[in-house]
Amino acid sequence: MWRVLAVHGFGGLTLRAVAAEMGATTGLLTHYFPSKRALLKHALEVLDRRSADRPRPAAERAGEASGLVMVRATLLDILPLDAESAASNRIWVASWDVALADPELAREHAERYRRARERMAGHIAQAKELGELPLGTPTDDTAAAAQSFVLGLVVQALFAPREFPAERQIALVDEYLARVGDGGTAGE
Amino acid sequence: MWRVLAVHGFGGLTLRAVAAEMGATTGLLTHYFPSKRALLKHALEVLDRRSADRPRPAAERAGEASGLVMVRATLLDILPLDAESAASNRIWVASWDVALADPELAREHAERYRRARERMAGHIAQAKELGELPLGTPTDDTAAAAQSFVLGLVVQALFAPREFPAERQIALVDEYLARVGDGGTAGE
C-alpha cells in the first residue's frame, strides 16, 4: 500500500494494485480494508506510528537538546531529505485532497497539525527561556510560521527535487532559523 | 467543475457530478472533456488565467510599488483570505496528488512554482536595490523560503480555518517579512 501510494498517489490507489503488490487476492485485502478510504486511513496511522517510533535526535537522547536545537531537528525531521522521507511526504500530500473532502479525516489532520504546532511552540518557549530567542518572540505565531515554512518546502521539494536537494533544504531551514533568532529583537 | 472541485476535491470530481452542476448531460461534457484529468487540467488553466487577469494591487498600478510592498502583495494574493481564494486554494491542493503521479502535470506545476519564485526573486532584488532589505539577503533562497512559507500557510489555513482567520494569516505574513528585513543584517 505504501509503495502504491508513494508512486501513484491516492488517485492510483486501488485495492487491486495493493493486492498485486502484496501478492494477495483482492478478496483477502477487502476483508481487512473495505474501501480506498480505509486503506488511506491505515496508511496515515502507519505514518503517525513510524514518526512516533523514529529514533529521536542524538542531542535530545543525551538530554542536551536546547530549544532551538529541537526546533531545527523537528523541522529537518519533516523534510524529504532522503528517499524514505520523500515517500512519506508524498503520502501526506496525497492525503490532503481526500482529507479536505472528508470531515473525519479533515478533523484528524487538523488535530495532527495542531499537536505538531504545540510541540513546536514548546521548543520555542524553551528557546526563549534559554535566551536563544528574544523574550518578545511570539511563541504560537512563530510555531505556526515555522510549520508553514516546512510544509510548503515539502511541496516545492516534491515537485522540484533537483532544485531542492537535501543540502539546499537544510540551508533554507538554517537561514530561516537565523532570521527567527535575529528578527525577534524588534519585539523585545 | 469549479464548485465540484472546491467542495468535493479531485476525489469527488466525476463527469456526472460536473454535468449535474451544469444542468448538462454527461454526453455533452465528455465531448469537451474526455476524462477527469482533462477536467482538472482545464480547472488549473482557468485558475492560472484568473490569477493573471486579477487586478494588480493599487500600489503597483500607481507605479508606487516598492520591492517589499510587492513581496507582501504577492504573498497575500496567494492566501485563502476569503471564500473565493479558499476555493481556488482548495483546487490547487486537490491537484497536487494527481500532478505528482502524472509527469506532464508535475512538470507544469514545477514550472508554475519556478516562475512564481522568479517573480518573487525579482521583487526581493528590487527591495535590496531600494535599501528595504540588506544587500546580503540571498535573493533566490529568500524567494524560495517566502513561497514555502505561504504554501504551507495555505495548507494549515484550509485544515484549520478557525485557527487561521484572515487577520492572523496577514499578521503572520507581516511578522515573516519583518524578520526577513531584520535578519538579513547578519549577511551584510
Would you identify the CATH architecture of the largest domain in chain A? Orthogonal Bundle
What are the secondary-structure elements of chain A, in order, as H or E?
HHHHHHHHHH
C-alpha Rg of chain A (nearest Å): 19 Å
Q: Number of folding domains of chain A?
A: 2
Q: What value does the average pLDDT of chain A take?
A: 88
Walk me through the structure.
- The structure is a homodimer of 188-residue chains.
- By secondary structure, chain A is an all-alpha fold.
- The first copy, chain A, folds into 2 domains: 54 residues, Arc Repressor Mutant, subunit A (Orthogonal Bundle), CATH 1.10.10.60; 131 residues, Orthogonal Bundle (Tetracycline Repressor, domain 2).
- Chain A is built from 10 helices and no strands.
- In chain A, helix 2 packs across helix 3 and helix 6 runs antiparallel to helix 8.
- Chain A is elongated, with a radius of gyration of 19 Å.
- The interface between A and B is large, with 54 and 54 residues.
